[in-house]
Amino acid sequence: MSREPLPEVPLPRSFPRPRLRSTAAVFTTMAALAATSLVTGPSVAEPFSSAPCTLGRTDAHHSEGVDTWNTAYPRPARALDAVMVFLSFPDARPLTSPAELTADHFPATTRFFERASYGRFTLRPHPLPHWIRMPHPSTSYAIQRDWNAERRGAYLRDALAAADGQVDFSRYDVVYFVADPDAPGVDSDATKVVNLDVPLRADGTDIRRVVTVFEKHPPDRLVLAHETGHVFDLPDLYHRPMDGKGDWDTYVGDWDLMGSQFGLAPDLFAWHKWKLGWLERRQVACVRGPEPRRLTLEPLETGPGNAGIFGPGRGTKLAVVRTGADSALAFEARGAVANDTAVCRQGVLVYRVHSGAASGTGPIQVLDAHPHTEACWENSVYPPLADAPVAVGETFKVPGSNVRVTVTGRTESGAWDVEITAG
Question: Is pTM beyond 0.85 here?
Answer without folding.
Answer: yes
